[in-house]
Design goal:
Shape: elongated
Structural class: mainly alpha
Number of helices: 12
Helix content: 55-70%
Order of helices and strands: HHHHHHHHHHHH
Strand content: under 5%
Low-confidence stretches: none
């Protein structure tokens, strides 16, 4: 199975055999079978340069965070990219969320639902927080959005969030925008951009 990947993604051949072998064995150590390893290689070829300090550091942090071996295995299986994130970035994000008032249970819930949030530097998260404040959201309302729709904060501010929020701003009165976004965001935040306006209109 893994050999097939080299025919589909020839760029992988530039990696050393030892680098790839080490990464593949690391995945198999979680019980991941060849077919799924090859899928991960196809989807994330750049992750399989040998960076043991990143992945081992992240797994250690997850254990310190309180995740069981089974929970870590599920995370690796579904979101292998996350395990190659800098531990420093993940820790800084966790500290920022804690400072906002989220407890460890809430952080674990976010980690399970939207682990990519912990791949984002806090400077980017703070920019989204400030932008929402400028739209009229209170700190408490923004924290509620983080709890309810953490994946929203993984989206690009300029390329995704601002264009999408501009649509309800055009169709919803300023006084009702916060309530509309808080209660209806999931219906239009993650659809195709071309469908956003219709989704918003149907939610009014």
């Amino acid at each position: 199975e893994v050999a097939k990947v080299f025919r589909v993604r020839p760029g992988l051949e530039r990696r050393t055999a030892e680098s790839l072998r080490t990464s593949v064995q690391w995945l198999k150590g979680f019980g991941i079978v060849d077919a799924d390893v090859s899928r991960m290689l196809r989807q994330n070829p750049n992750l399989f340069d040998n960076h043991p300090e990143k992945r081992d550091g992240m797994v250690k942090w997850l254990k310190e965070f309180g995740l069981s071996d089974l929970e870590i295995t599920k995370l690796v299986y579904k979101h292998v990219r996350f395990c190659f994130t800098s531990r420093d970035i993940a820790e800084a994000t966790a500290q920022w969320l804690t400072a906002l008032g989220l407890d460890k249970s809430s952080l674990r819930d976010i980690l399970e639902r939207a682990p990519s949030l912990f791949e984002i530097k806090t400077v980017s998260l703070k920019a989204k927080f400030s932008w929402l404040q400028g739209l009229g959201f209170s700190d408490a309302q923004i924290v509620r959005l983080i709890r309810k729709i953490p994946a929203m904060f993984t989206r690009s501010l300029d390329k995704n969030l601002k264009p999408r929020f501009a649509l309800p701003e055009q169709q919803v009165s300023a006084g009702k925008l916060v309530d509309f976004v808080t209660t209806r965001a999931s219906t239009w935040l993650f659809c195709k951009m071309a469908d956003c306006s219709d989704r918003i209109q149907s939610s009014l």
